[in-house]
Amino acid sequence: MSATPLRIAxxxxxxxxxxxxxxxxxxxxxxxxxxxxxxxFAPSVNGARMFRDxxxxxxxxxxxxxxxxxxxMVQMRIDALKxxxxxxxxxxxxxxxxxxxxxxxxxxxxxxxxxxxxxxxxVHHLDAFSDPRLIEWQRRAYADADAVFCVSDTWxxxxxxxxxxxxxxxxxxxxxxxxxxxxxxxxxxxxxxxxIDGAPVVLAVGGIEAxxxxxxxxxxxxxxxxxxxxxxLIIAGGASLLDHDAYTRRFVARATELNLAIxxxxxxxxxxxxxxxxIPALMRRADVVSMVSxxxxxxxxxxxxxxVGTPVVVSRIEPFTEYxxxxxxxxxxxxxxxxxxxxxxxxxxxxxxxxxxxxxPDLLDRFSWRESARCHIGLYRRYAQPAAA
Length: 389
Fold this sequence. Notes:
Helix content is 40%, strand content 16%. It is of the alpha/beta class. It folds into 2 domains: 7-173 and 368-383, Glycogen Phosphorylase B (Rossmann fold); 187-366, 3-Layer(aba) Sandwich (Rossmann fold). The strands form 2 sheets. It has a 7-stranded parallel β-sheet. It has a 6-stranded parallel β-sheet with strand order 10-9-8-11-12-13, sandwiched between helices. It starts with 6 loop residues before the first strand and ends in a 6-residue tail after the last helix. One of its GO terms (molecular function) is glycosyltransferase activity. Residues 192-349 form the Glycosyl transferase family domain. This is Glycosyltransferase-like protein. Keywords: Transferase. Pfam families: Glyco_transf_4, Glycos_transf_1.
C-alpha cells in the first residue's frame, strides 16, 4: 500500500479525563501531526464537551443522562456511537479503531449488520465483571476485531495466553511539554483550591478504586503519618464509568477508623474529576506520586510524574517491571501497607535515588506520542481497507 495519508476514526468511551480518553486524544494529535486525517468519536451526556481541545475533528455522540445501572449505561453508549458513525459516512474511513469495549462493541455490531467491513481494537487492560452481559461485551470487543493492539508486552502476552488472541504491542507516550518541571502560572490557584499545604504531599491519580489499590495506600499513608504528621494524601481524578461506590464507602469508613479526616485542607483530599491543567500542577507540587495499582495496562501516570521531576512509588508487578527499574522508581509490594509506607519514605530520602539526570530522560525518550503514532501507522497499513462492503 502507498504511503498516502489515512483517514482514521478513533473511538473512546467518554469525554472525561480518564487514561483511555487521554490516550485517544494524544494518539489522535500525533497521527494528525504525522499528516493523517483523524476524527475522534466519543459519547457525550447532555452535550458535555471533550475535556481537552484537540486539533482533530471531534464527533460527540449524544447520550441521555442515566443512573448507576452499568449495563444500561454501556448499551446507551454503544448505541450512540453506532448512530454517530452511521451518520458520518463510515465508508470514507480507512481505519476504524476502538480504544475500549464500548467502541469495540459499536463497531462489532455495525460489522455484523454489514455497515462496515472491519475494525481494530486496543486493549489497555481487561476488567473482572460478574454481569454476563458485561462479560460478553468485553469479549466481543476484542474477539471480533481484525487486529488487537496492547500498550504493553505484558498484556500482549496475556491476551494470547489467557484469551487466545494474538495482539501487537504499540508504544505508549508522554507529553513532555505538558508535563514539565517548571511551574505554570495557574499552579498556585489549583493548589489553593484544594487546600494543599501538607509536608510532605503524597499524590495518587485515578480516584478511589479497588484496581488502584486505594485502601492499601490509605493504610500505608496512616503508617507514613507516624513520622510525617503534617503529610497529606491527595487522591486526584476518578472520572470512571464503572460503579466504585461500595469501595469508596469502605475507604471512607477506614479513614474514620484511622482518624484521618477527608476534605479540603485535611490529611486526605479527594479532588474528584479535575480541570485539564490541574493534574500537572498537582504532580509538580507532590513530594512523591504513588501508583501501587493491582492491575494496569501500562501506567502512564508514572511517566507523567517523572517528566515533571517527582519521585514515584510503583507496584513491583507487570507491566511496571517491564519498562521501569531501580534507577527510575521506588518499588513497593502492593499487597503490603508496610512495604508501601517504606517506599514512600525511600522516595523522600534523596528523592529515592532516582537518576533524574540520565536514566529518567532516557526512559522518557523511549515513550513519545510521535513514536506511538509511527508504530500505529505501520500497523494500520496492514489492515486499512474500505470500511463499507
